[in-house]
Write a structure and sequence with these properties.
Shape: globular
Number of strands: 13
Strand order of the largest sheet: 3-10-9-8-7-4-5-6
Oligomer: single chain
CATH topology of the largest domain: Aspartate Aminotransferase, domain 2
Number of domains: 3
Strand content: 5-15%
CATH superfamily of the largest domain: Type I PLP-dependent aspartate aminotransferase-like (Major domain)
Structural class: alpha/beta
Length: about 475
């Protein structure tokens, strides 16, 4: 017998589904057994037949029940196996140390108890309420389901994004030059495949973004790293690279750079634009974390009067990583090439999701959400920095903005050595080797501060640190 509570949460339909699922899982309802008819179930539990119909239909859709003509509903003979397969989670194996491991394992390891090495925000830091309201608003509207939408993306969202770029970052953006993408990753991929040819020498931040490096290597590019310093770029090293290697493109993240969270001074941005013009270097600016900057400073694109910069942004970091809506801005000629490649590789982006994002960011609470997000990140930065200092770590920069802290411990020359032991403790770390252009061993590590405030994490890390210091005889 099931226990249903009409006035409780979850709704009755969900209670029926969960209850029958439990009975099937523990084999109180055997494979092949007939379940009560819709009318009989409704009468027994004093619920509406419509409620039972919806619950049974969902159980059929989930493969737990089967419907047989006029005979009724029966437990699927494979239902127990289906439940077990759905419930099983892959355990994280021993990682192979490369960017492909990072891209795959870090997403497969969401079930780990502690994730200071991940690249997203916790659920309760997201714009969940606004996203839900946006979904309801879109669901209640008249949707155009028979077409693919505008190849450039939803015009309303492009226009609003262009207005926000001008208001917040002083980027002069024409909606006709702004294209929506399937997240920032697709935007970067389109830029790589449009601007880079096999054998080209390409510059990237070092340390930098593993996903981007993987895309570039797959394209056949030769990667050279431009060292990041606490004060921006190593411009002397950059000029030597330009003189001796004649690179074609520089993919860079000037502000709230991942993994260091460093920012580039205005004078360096001007100098970089001068060097790019002098050497015929195309610039691709990844401003993925713009929403997390409390007082935005000029960026490469806002200073670019020659339209030599391709700008990449995203809504995924501040709304939800499951909301795969990014955007890119380029001059008209280049944008046509990017658009054609987008259409060849995947047609249009999801207009339904773009409408959801538009509804969310036109919500009156959007700006308040961003302000609160910045406050929480600043508080977490201070808290995590204090813990790291207590354990003897040193930081790359002193700051309180963004998601990340780039840090190292003098007793740990290779942060990758901590990975196996950390995984055994349910901890996903962000070892620095993954972010280095030449993948050399390094003591640097990236901490996502939003996932690094739990006392239990620091207790485990302290024991882990002591273990490795003893192991190395330090």
């Amino acid at each position: 017998m099931l226990e249903l509570h009409p006035d409780a949460s979850p709704p009755l339909v969900n209670q029926i589904i969960n209850g029958l699922r439990d009975l099937i899982e523990n084999q109180t309802l055997k494979p092949g057994a007939k379940v009560p008819s819709i009318r009989a179930f409704a009468a027994t539990y004093s619920v509406s037949t419509f409620t039972v119909v919806e619950a049974y239909d969902r159980l059929v859709a989930q493969g737990l029940l089967v419907s047989r003509g006029n005979a009724g509903f029966f437990v699927n003979r494979s239902a127990v196996e289906l439940i077990e397969s759905q419930a099983s989670e892959p355990l994280p194996g021993k990682p192979e140390f490369n960017s492909e491991w990072y891209l795959q394992q870090i997403f497969e390891s969401r079930q780990l108890a502690f994730k200071p090495g991940c690249g997203w925000l916790p659920n309760d830091w997201m714009f969940e309420d606004g996203l839900r309201r946006g979904m309801r608003q879109v669901a209640s509207s008249v949707l155009e389901l028979s077409g693919y939408g505008d190849p450039m993306g939803l015009m309303e969202l492009r226009t609003l994004t262009a207005q926000n770029l001008q208001q917040d970052l002083r980027i002069v953006a024409n909606p006709a030059q702004l294209m929506l993408t399937h997240g920032a990753s697709q935007a970067l991929d389109l830029a790589v495949r449009t601007l880079v040819r096999p054998g080209d020498v390409v510059l990237v931040d070092d340390p930098g973004y593993p996903n981007l490096m993987s895309i570039l290597r797959f394209q056949g590019a030769t990667l050279l790293g431009v060292p990041r310093t606490p004060n921006g770029y190593d411009l002397d090293h950059l000029e030597r690279l330009l003189e001796h290697h004649r690179p074609t493109v520089f993919f860079t993240q000037p502000h709230l750079h991942s993994p260091t969270s460093s920012r580039t001074p205005l004078a360096q941005l001007h100098r970089l634009l001068q060097l790019a013009a002098q050497h015929g270097l195309r610039l691709v600016e990844n401003n993925l974390y713009a929403d997390m900057i409390a007082e935005p400073l000029p960026c490469l694109t806002s200073l670019d009067h020659r339209q030599q910069v391709v700008y990449v942004g995203s809504y995924s970091k501040s709304i939800s990583p499951n909301v795969r809506v990014g955007f890119m801005l380029a001059n008209p000629q280049l944008m046509q090439q990017l658009l054609q490649l987008k259409m060849r590789s995947g047609l249009t982006t999801s207009q339904v999701m773009e409408r959801v994002v538009y509804a969310a960011i036109t919500d009156g609470r959007w700006r308040k959400h961003l302000k609160r997000l910045r406050q929480r990140l600043a508080e977490a930065q201070q808290e995590v920095a204090a813990q790291l200092t207590r354990l003897g770590f040193e930081r790359f920069i002193e700051g309180d903005e963004g998601m990340y802290l780039w840090t190292r411990h003098p007793a740990i020359p290779d942060s990758a050595a901590l990975i196996d032991d950390a995984l055994e403790q349910g901890i996903m770390l962000g070892p620095g080797q993954l972010f280095m252009v030449d993948a050399q061993a390094t003591g640097w590590m990236r901490f996502n501060v939003a996932f690094s405030t739990e006392p239990a994490l620091w207790e485990k890390l302290e024991k882990l640190l002591v273990k490795h210091v003893r192991r190395d005889g330090l």
